[in-house]
Amino acid sequence: MRFNRAIDEIQVLSFDLDDTLYNNHPIIANAVQAMNDYVNALASWRAQGPKFWLECRQHVATEQSELTDDVTRWRQAALRYGLQQAGFSDADVEQHADAAYQAFATARSKIEVSASVLELLARLSKRFRLIAITNGNVEVERFNLAGQFEQVFMAGRDGRAKPHADLFDAACQYCAVAPHQILHIGDSLDTDVQGANLAGCRSVWLNNQDVAYRYQGLADIEIDDIHALSLLLK
Predict the structure, then answer these.
(1) Where are the beta strands (DSSP E) in 109-225?
(2) At what angle are helices 90-108 and 71-85 packed, to 10 degrees?
(3) Residues 144-176 pLDDT 10s
(4) Which pLDDT belongs to residue 1?
(5) Which residue of the set 8, 16, 37, 69 is catalytic?
(6) CB-based burial of residue 112 (10 Å sphere; 0-12 exposed, 13-18 middle, 19+ buried)?
(7) Are 78 and 35 in contact (CB under 8 A)?
(8) How far is the C-alpha of 98 from the C-alpha of 121, rounded, in Å?
(9) N or C, which end of the chain has less CB nearby within 10 Å?
(10) C-alpha span between 124 and 59 (Å, rounded)
(11) Residues of the chain whose pLDDT is less than 70?
(12) pLDDT tens digit string along 43-52?
């Protein structure tokens, strides 16, 4: 654990979810595959070609840019747009869009957080309040993170995505604390660290992803293993 700035008065620990508390890469790949398996079983969708889904996502992002802060609504809107372009009736568009999204969501929730991480959260919860702030759409109540957090703040539903300050501001209001009393832990410099810093919160960068980030600011604390957070209890 490397301290770049001194921290004190922390009352709330805020966790990013994907790639912070579990490896999300295989999970999201399986979820996307489940959705693609569903829509590609539809002949008129399949006939649009292999790049059709990406084209639908891009079209919706361009035409309804506000949806990019809400990955659930963005995906659902792209499915509806694609099904409309493929010539489905309004009723069939709704039926298939819902079924395709449910295939995605079911696979998206097939997560098993390790026992050691759950134990770490349990130990931290004896000293700090625990919340989650995520840009993703994982439903924690559907796997073994259920009940671990006092509140989950989700982009789209609760405000604009990180690094916008919306979710951090909402967390401060909910927890009735000042921004510097929240310590946010996440794997992304661009979203987690930048977002927390901009909102006046404290930040921990879990530096375990081989990613070239654009943000040049420093986290208050840098770690390379989530279990290093146990040092906060000493």
Answers:
(1) 129-134, 152-154, 182-186, 202-206, 221-223
(2) 140
(3) 999 999 999 999 999 999 999 999 999 999 999
(4) 87
(5) 16
(6) exposed
(7) no
(8) 34
(9) C
(10) 43
(11) none
(12) 999 999 999 9
